[in-house]
Design goal:
This protein is 50% helix and 16% strand. The strands form 3 sheets. Strands 2, 3, 6, 7 and 8 form a 5-stranded antiparallel beta sheet that branches. Helix 7 packs antiparallel against helix 8. The chain is globular. The model has no long low-confidence stretch (mean pLDDT 95). GO terms for molecular function: acyl-CoA dehydrogenase activity; flavin adenine dinucleotide binding. Its cofactor is FAD. It holds the Pfam family Acyl-CoA_dh_1.
Amino acid sequence: MDFRRSDEQKLIYQTANDIATDRFAEKAFTWEDEFPYENQKILAEQDLLGIGLPMEYGGGGYSVVEVLTAQEAVGRVCPDTAHILSRSSMGPPRAIAELGSEYLKEKYLPAVCDGNSIISVAISEAEAGSDASNMQTSVERDSDELILNGSKMWVTKAAQCDAFLVYARFPDDNIGAIVVDKDTDGLTLDDGSVNMAGHVQHQLYFDDCTVYEDQVLVHEKDAFKRLLIEFNVERCHNAMMCVACGLNAFDKALDYAKNREQFDQPVADFQGIEWKLADMAMELDAARLLIYRAAANARESDPSRLETSMAKVKANEVGQEVVDEAMQIHGANGYMKDSPIEYLYRWVRGWKIAGGTVEVQRNAIASELKKYGLD
């Protein structure tokens, strides 16, 4: 059992960190209400988009561990850009790579890797949040066409997307997924709602939206189960966003404490602050190890629901706690609207809700423990 990064992983981390420091740092924390297209282009030029997708479609062919390594390095500098990086290898692009037909892979994955396309998942509904199986968006067959009706909410980056991975109930009552292009007739977006982090999320409406069989990702009897297995990997992305935000805040708090003097000494030399920094570092490292364990064990098999849920809960809570402590160390300076810490404070909070709430994850953890115990 070796917890050290391989030489290749060290190179990925250092390359991503160098690019982030040189190209993303200056404008980090300025992307609240706009999309960092220029950073997406840089990621594509540096072959960091789609690094977890198959090489034959323009990806890097790496595992989830390497994706998370690059995500951590970039997120430690600019979390908005890290979000773009990881979403290009996880979520809908990974689901298409793992479950999709050759047609879907060729149609969508090269554009994702080139930075010319973004695909978001559309799963939540007004009455189907944590209880996703209660979704009402439905598909009906009409000759060789599929007619999609319903609505989805809280869709991230919808305005910038070219397509959506839409979860829906098929005529046999099984839940599957269809890739729906944004310009498909019958699909409309609302004006969007601004969340606490300042990011816009949209509702999608499907009104006799016509798609075809070749756009279906999966719809057979075990389709929903297969989709949820892929969602376990998505939780690693979610968890690493929290750790990256925490590391970002920790670095700033440590630097601030070492340079801020009160009572003729650096704030970092007060024991109360020393203990905060020690606890922040220990908790971040524990969360990070849980994430990498889940990802490493998923290399040769399906990602574990127990391990990914544990990683998500730990990282969601640690990320928020560390950013909160970083704000406390900064005092009033961290509480100001133009402070990166204030932005991180708002940004990190949403991850405890997205991708399955921490309460639902604890239920899943308990369910797995009752079945199999803890090794």
